[in-house]
């Protein structure tokens, strides 16, 4: 296992959200199904919100925290988005939500891992807030998926 700074972890997470957003937007151009298009729009907004939030966190956190080292070896973005290989123009809303939740769960797990290892109170606060952010956005996605049946 290698080590990365908090800045590296935030950059990796932001990039992951940006790639997911781009994938959802590309798929919107290919689908002809209105419910799927609406869910793709919501998921792209979900990923954009998270990417923007990560950028804000990074600007607000002290340099001392950003320079902290943690045991984390970032995998490739392609590996983290491996479920996205299932994307096709006829994908169902349920399949889309499943992929989106896997991305959220991956990052929640990452943040919890770093949170468990960190000793500084500022880092603990940062990663605790990131876990809460991801979990609240995940719940919004689940609620949107449940309401998709009403569209």
From TrEMBL:
InterPro entries: Ferritin-like, Ferritin-like_SF. It comes from the Bacteria. This is DUF2383 domain-containing protein.
């Amino acid at each position: 296992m290698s080590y990365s700074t908090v800045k590296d972890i935030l950059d990796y997470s932001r990039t992951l959200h940006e790639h997911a957003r781009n994938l959802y937007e590309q798929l919107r151009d290919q689908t002809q199904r209105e419910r799927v298009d609406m869910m793709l729009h919501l998921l792209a907004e979900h990923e954009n919100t998270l990417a923007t939030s990560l950028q804000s966190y990074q600007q607000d956190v002290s340099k001392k925290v950003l320079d902290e080292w943690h045991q984390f070896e970032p995998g490739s973005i392609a590996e983290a988005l491996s479920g996205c290989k299932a994307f096709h123009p006829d994908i169902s809303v349920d399949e889309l939500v499943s992929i989106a939740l896997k991305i959220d769960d991956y990052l929640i797990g990452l943040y919890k891992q770093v949170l468990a290892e960190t000793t500084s109170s500022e880092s603990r606060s940062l990663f605790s807030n990131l876990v809460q952010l991801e979990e609240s956005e995940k719940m919004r996605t689940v609620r949107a998926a449940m309401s998709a049946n009403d569209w």
